[in-house]
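Before the break, one more example. Copy the sequence into your notebook; we will annotate it together after we see the structure.
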Amino acid sequence: MAAESAAVPMEEPERRIELRGVRVRNLQNIDVDFPLGKLTVISGVSGAGKSSLAFDTLYAEGQRRFIQCLSISARRALEQMEPPLADRISDLPPAIAIRQTQREASPRATVATMAEIHDDLRILYARLGQIRCPDCRLLVTRDSPTSVAQTLSRSVADGARLLVCAPWQSAGEPDAASLAVLRESGFIRAIAGGQTLDLNTLPPTMPTGPWLIVVDRVVMGQTTSARLLESLETAFSQGLGRAVVLAASQGETPAADQAVVNVDGRDWVEHRFASDLVCPNCGREFLVPEPRLFNFNSPLGACPVCHGLGFVKVDGGRQICEECHGARLQPQARAVEWQGESLPSLLRWTIGELQARLATMKLDSPSTATGPLESVRQHLLSRVNYLASVGLGHLTLDRPIGTLSAGETRRVLMTAALGSQMVNALYVLDEPSAGLHPRDAEGLRAAILRLRDAGNTVVIVDHERDLVEHADHFLVLGPAAGRDGGQVIYQGVPRAEDFAKTPSPARQISASATCLKLSGVTHRNLRNLTVEFPLGVLCVVTGVSGSGKSSLVCQTLYPALATELARRGAGQANTGKPARTTNAAEKAALTLEDGGFERLEGTGQLDAVLLLDQQPLTRSPRSNAATLLGVFNEIRGLFAQTAEAQVRNYGAGHFSFNAASGGRCPTCDGAGKLEIDLQFLPDVRMSCPDCHGTRFRKEILEVKYRGLNIAEVLNLTAREAFPFFRGLPRVQRRLRVLKDVGLDYLPLGQSLDSLSGGESQRLKLALALTRHSRARTLLILDEPTVGLHAADVDRLLEVFRLLVETGHSLVVIDHNLAVLRAADHLMELGPGAGSMGGKIVALGTPAAVTTSPHSVIGQWLAASQ
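Here is what the structure looks like once it is written out:
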């Protein structure tokens, strides 16, 4: 008989999140699968629909379904939420999203608070901290009869005589009446004025000074523990929570918190105890430590003078608070120590220092080694490990978020996601590699892979080659932006052709080229640095995270130059230091921290300076490209001139969604959307049910210009609007600028707070071009390639070349290798971060930096050739 063939086990089909018929924003009825438990990277040119798919579809539906598990009030809000436009979305896990969009940093936000490290530290200080009196430097503890008995057994030798006493706590000095009450209670002795008094036969003149009521006289090691405990309980009761034990001195040296008193000619060592938190020496009372006490955002914990800010405003400037000296916390919180440090002192540590301490420390109580506090330590360590792995080990925990670079800020914000230990969740991350030096990208990639290996599904919008190469699934949207995008170009494993290089040869800089020379820079980790920035070229500043790029360029060069140009315009002399003026450029500079320097030379070749950073363009959801560029005023004027508007007596204000007296929708106040407050969850936006997102009242929309109403005009892309406004050169000139920076796909009325970081910065660049087209301007750009596909980077470099050719100068902070290769002048700071950085390690053309033995970025440049 033939041998029976072995059964071959069938492989289980791979589980996937299935999206069918997705039509959100510009997505064109696409079908997409995301494998569960895998890493998927979404790429494509700006405006191709990446965020629409990842956040407005995948995450939005995950959030909507999660709310179904919540309370009735939350579900009522859910009924108002519109599901994403799709035929079907299945097998969707609970979703967590980290968006790239940045809000203006609060002056209260620090690295520790944003990374949720501060919350864990507050718990540890509340549970394990020890109070040390700021005046006496003595430990303040809560005592009980049992703890006092244990303390005495350790500190007092057997055979020593003890007097268990209660301090006098009644109001006023002792008199005959009050002492009679003591006698009736069974007390027969007291100590006052250095002598023992018999309460039955008091002297004619009462001794002055503190009185002690003698409760019992015992001998250590001979008196039973039960009697000692009973005597201590009586002392605490009579002393209203205070007790004093006098031990006959054997000639030993008393401890720091003890005193030697003489009673009846004999020395006694005084031991003071309290059942509440009171200094045993000065009697200062302290609050019971709790997490709120260490929160400078809470009225309980905040410094009463600066209210938790660490500074006070004086004459329009900031000054360190003289009460807390920048510690932000009130005195009682600052008095608590853990691991030998107060919380403000520990927060001055770097992340690397805390990481080293956490890895080796033991919790104070053996009983908590595997309990809740050990879980807190592990939670804290996971976040610290993540921050260190992505190149942020140099940052101090109390560093204000507003002083970080854009890339550093994003990595801190991602700590909650990448440093967590959740499983079976969907993580949607927006440009996690943005602003990362190639060396730091390795740590980020490892953190993301750990998240995936823990059983989570990770979806990333990114273009970083290292992340794409390690992805399990790669999705490319396109082929172009806006309405020409929204299609699936490719999905599958990463391909080699996705990483094609575009050579960008640099120009040779003349030895006589004009330069800005900044001398004696001493800011953060920059130590007496002298730097020259050549003008009329593309100068790129790079270096590992924390090497001092933002400190040099954004926080020193920009405010120094803005101040000098403002001073020159006002006819003031140059003192070599930033000065306070009312010039608009200087006001912008004052939003940053001014770095110290000795001298700035070469400013005569410049008329203006602009900083284009990653800060949000606006706080208002009503702002858009048309309002930012000043086109909307022209458009409103055109509608006001129509015959229909004049018949209805409509002016330009009626076509504004910003004016309360205009024609905006009263339900959404012209925003087009309503925000739903879900309390402990992120706010949810939904389309206005009355205007359906048009922003205007119905009667306003009845007025048309060239066949379109005001809402339809705002829905035009810049590319479509250019021919629509034929014969209007002022409008077309501003629209052409959007085309120059690669934003011609952008609808004129799209809310600015919905733009990616890269789009926002290019829109700032367009604004700069419209305002300073003829001036000799230095444009400072902080990571302009954030969120840009390689094709977008090439387009951006074309804009840079156009700016240089028209007489402008550029100083760009970036790590993108295409930008580095295209630089006319490349400056690398380093070699490390924090105290290991702050120096110029390589300088010159990209080719020269590539061959420099000290360059870190040169290795990646050489590999990318």
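DSSP finds 28 helices and 35 strands in the chain. Residues 1-5, 572-593 have pLDDT under 50 and may be disordered. Try to locate both features in your own notes.
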